[in-house]
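To illustrate this point, what follows is a protein record of this kind.

___
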Amino acid sequence: MRTTLFSREITYGKKDAAELEEASVKVQLIYDKALHMLHSHLPDFLWDAWIGVPYEIISSLYKGDNDSGTVFQKWIQGPSGWKCIGCERHCLESNDFHQDHDKLLSQRAYKFHNGRRQSMLLQATIWSIFEKTLLFHPFLGGETLFDGEELETIAAYFVPTYISDVRFRELSKPFKEYDGSNIQVYQEWISAPHLVLQWEGGLTEGRWMTGVYVNQAQFSGLGPYLKDSEGKRTYMEAFVQ
């Protein structure tokens, strides 16, 4: 079913907005906790290959260094409610990052790190830990990465994501393949509302996605957008009523 819009405005009910506001911060803490775990246990060469961003420049709720950078979470209101399919945390790395203050260059160069690269690996890591925790919980006792409330958050808002498509083929479930972090990741396909936008920029058709901004451990706003078949985004304005 397609819905036609005549302005770049998306209206959210107060209940949906309140749910996203609360859930987004809980979800972000889980992302950051998993990222910290990977940084603590992955060899440097795997961290560089899979994550590719120096941990020191990543703002994180978990390590308390959340003063810079806004995280952009991607949500879909699917048949079973709101689901977060990933987050983007773009970083700029200065070429003098590892130099002493007295040796700073007069002109700096920066390397841009695309946050999508770490996003899908985090999704797969979190879902793997979630499933194994549920399976082996009687034998693990209290020695688990995620506590009971965090497991409930993952069950409610995360999407099954793996580094193999075998599970989806066994269950005959639709999935999407992501390739771009030196490892292929497969995520269950969540259907999103299909919208057609007629506006001064022409005719735009795509899936309705909801971006949620999180900054300094707080919900910072909604950023809805249409995503067309080529992945291009047309950002909209959010209104709550």
About this structure: The chain has a mean pLDDT of 82. Residues 15 and 118 are 31 Å apart (CA to CA).
